[in-house]
Specification:
single chain
């Protein structure tokens, strides 16, 4: 009898832990804030020296929604709605307490030291982890090009974080 109770206890624990993992763990509405910095490297003809500098990203705030696409799978739909900005939609898959977003494009303002702003399309790679069942931290990498004063720059950075709290 004790053996049966012991086996049932562990079976229930295993089922309970499976319920918390993967897509259902991430499903919900979040408020988010994104911050970080990127490097701009001037694109110049071979043999010439261009300008390189780091610029801060403006703090973005907004709403994030994660919806399950298929209850039997770990695929989710991610919708990021930046306040005063754009809406980005991408797919992701979940494994345990991690989420892996499909690469997406984002239109971002970059702040330079002389107060000029650059607006450009960047490719974004993002992965994240859930903490305490209500806080999602996404680590992002930006990659793309931008123009400033008729000069072209390569834009790259992996010092970008999004902190999202479940509403």
């Amino acid at each position: 009898m004790k053996r049966i109770i012991f086996i049932l206890f562990f079976a229930l624990m295993a089922l309970a832990s499976c319920q918390k993992k993967n897509a259902p763990l991430f499903r919900g509405d979040y408020s988010f804030k994104t911050s970080g910095s990127v490097t701009l490297e001037e694109i110049v003809p071979q043999g010439e020296t261009g300008e390189t500098f780091t610029v801060g990203l403006p703090n973005e705030i907004g709403q994030l929604e994660i919806s399950t696409l298929d209850n039997g799978k770990d695929s989710v739909l991610v919708v990021m709605n930046t306040m005063g900005g754009e809406v980005v939609v991408t797919h992701a898959f979940c494994k345990d307490n991690e989420i892996f977003l499909r690469d997406f494009k984002k239109n971002t303002l970059l702040l330079t030291g002389d107060s000029l702003t650059l607006k450009n399309d960047l490719r974004v790679k993002a992965t994240g982890r859930m903490y305490e069942d209500n806080t999602l931290i996404l680590n992002m990498t930006y990659d793309g090009e931008a123009e400033r004063n008729e000069r072209s720059f390569k834009v790259f950075g992996d010092d970008i974080r999004m902190a999202a709290i479940r509403n």
